[in-house]
């Protein structure tokens, strides 16, 4: 099973609404690895890697996010998989 990776920039009302916690939970349920962090510009940045169908399912779910989030758009870029083994929150940058 091929592993792919996508770098995501999630824009909208996505900070202060538990988006990072939701991301860790959703990605973990789908068996994905990677990380998520808040950005100083108000966006959320994430790297997700795993099977293509699971990554695509995660991105579809990420357009909704947790109940209080209002996602305006998600910019997605293909990346080389890093071989990560878990999904975690990283410090804001």
Describe this structure in words.
This protein has 93 residues and is of the alpha+beta class. The protein has a single domain, classed as Alpha-Beta Plaits, CATH 3.30.70.100. It is built from two helices and five strands, in the order E-H-E-E-H-E-E. The protein has helices spanning 19-29, 52-62; strands at residues 3-13, 33-38, 44-51, 70-79, 87-89. The chain has a five-stranded mixed sheet. A hairpin with a 5-residue loop joins strand 2 and strand 3. The radius of gyration is 12 Å and the shape is globular. It starts with a strand and ends with a strand.
Q: Which CATH architecture?
A: 2-Layer Sandwich
Radius of gyration: 12 Å
Q: Write down the overall mean pLDDT.
A: 96
Q: pLDDT under 50 segments (min length 5)?
A: none
CATH class: Alpha Beta
Q: Class by helix and strand content?
A: alpha+beta
Principal-axis shape: globular
Tally of helical runs: 2
Relative strand content: 35-45%
SSE ordering: EHEEHEE
Helix content: 10-25%
Strand segment tally: 5
